[in-house]
Amino acid sequence: MQITINPNPNPVADAERVARVAQPGFGKYFTDNMFIAEWNEEKGWHDARLTAYAPLTLDPATMVFHYGQEIFEGMKAYRQPDGAISLFRPDANAVRFARSAARIALPELPVKDFVAAVEALVKADAGWVPNNPGESLYIRPFMIASEVGLGVRPSSRATFLIIATPAAAYFNAAKPVSVWISNEYVRASKGGTGEAKCGGNYAASLLAQRAAAKEGCDQVVWLDAVERKWIEEMGGMNLFFVKGKGKDARIVTPSLTGTLLPGITRDSLLTVADDLGYKVEEVMISVEDWRSGAASGEISETFACGTAAVITGIGEAKSANGNWQIGDGQPGPITLALRERLLGIQHGSQVDTHGWMSKVIS
Ligand SMILES: *Cc1c(COP(=O)(O)O)cnc(C)c1O
What we know:
The protein is an alpha+beta fold. The chain has two domains: 3-167, 2-Layer Sandwich (D-amino Acid Aminotransferase, Chain A, domain 1); 177-347, D-amino Acid Aminotransferase, Chain A, domain 2 (Alpha-Beta Barrel), CATH 3.20.10.10. Helix content is 25%, strand content 31%. It has nine helices and 18 strands. The strands form two sheets. Strands 1, 2, 3, 4, 5, 6, 7, 8 and 18 form a nine-stranded mixed sheet that branches. A six-stranded mixed barrel has the order 9-10-11-12-15-16, surrounded by four helices. β10 (219-223) and β11 form a beta hairpin. α3 packs across α4 (111-124). The longest helix has 15 residues, at 333-347. The chain starts with a strand and ends with a strand. It binds pyridoxal-5'-phosphate. The site of pyridoxal-5'-phosphate has 13 residues, from β12 and α7.
C-alpha cells in the first residue's frame, strides 16, 4: 500500500495543543491528522493518505448507515522515558482487525499495511502523545462499508480510517467499579458476532448499560446467551478473578468460547501473571461460583481489563438474585501488581521481556 503523506497545513497552535494534551480527557480532542484509504473490488486497497483531520462527506445511502457494516480497533502509543514513542503489540490489533473484517464481510487489510498506517499517523501527530505516566495517545482504526445503495449485500466498497485522541486514565484506578449482571439482555450468542470488534455489538449493548446505571452500577456484566449462567465480559472489557491469596493465588479468566471478544490486554495479562509466578487458568465461571466465592473469600479479587482502561478493580456486583462485595470492595493487591507491571512495560519503566513494544519514533 502506497501512502501519500499530506499533513495538515493548519495544525492546532503549539500552545493550544500543549494545553489540550495536558488535560486530555478521553476522546475529547482529536489530533491534526487522520489516515484514510479506499477499497473496491477492482483496485483493492488504494488512495491511502495521511491528511488533515476533517469531516467526511458521505451519500446518505452509504451502506454503513443502514446495515451497520463497521469494525474498529483500539490501541495506544506510549511516550517512553527517553522521549521515544512506542506502540504496544500493534500486530495483534492488525490480526484481530482482519478477523473482524472477515466476519462482517468487509475486505481484510494486510497486517503490514495496518501497522504502516498507524505508524504514519503517530509520526505525523507525535506532538499529541502525552508525557505523563498512565497517559497515552489512543488510536482508533475503523472500517466502514462505503458503497452507495440500499440493496442488502456485502459492500463492494470499503473505507479504512484512523483517528487519534490524547487520553488520560479512563477510570480512576483507585476507585473500583460496581457491576450489574444482566439477565435480561445478552451481548453475543454462538454463531453471532461476539468475537468481532464491530460497532453493532456496542449498539446492542447500550440499553443494558442504561439498565445497569438505573441499578446504580457503573458497568454491565454479560452472561452467556443460552443458560444465562456463565460469565463472559464486562461492558467492553474482559474479566479476571483471583482465587486464593498471596503466592498461591490463581488468576482465572473466562475461556474464549467464541462469544467473547479476545482482548489483547487479556492475552497479555495471562502472560504477565505467569511471569509474576501465579498460576493462570482459562475456564468457565458461573455467576454462582462468583457469588459464593466472593462470600467465602475464595475469590479475593475481581477486575476487568482492556486497552482503554487497562485494569479496573470491581468492588461490588449486583443482580436480580442478590448483591455481593468482592474482598473489601477496594482494588486488591494482585490487581494492582498486574496493573503496575503491564503499565510499566507499556510506559518503558519495566523491561519488555516479551518484545511487545514497537518503536515508532526514537
Ligand atoms: C476491545 C474489547 C475488549 C478488550 O480488548 P483489548 O484488546 O484488551 O483492548 C474486550 N471486550 C470487548 C467487547 C471489546 O470490544
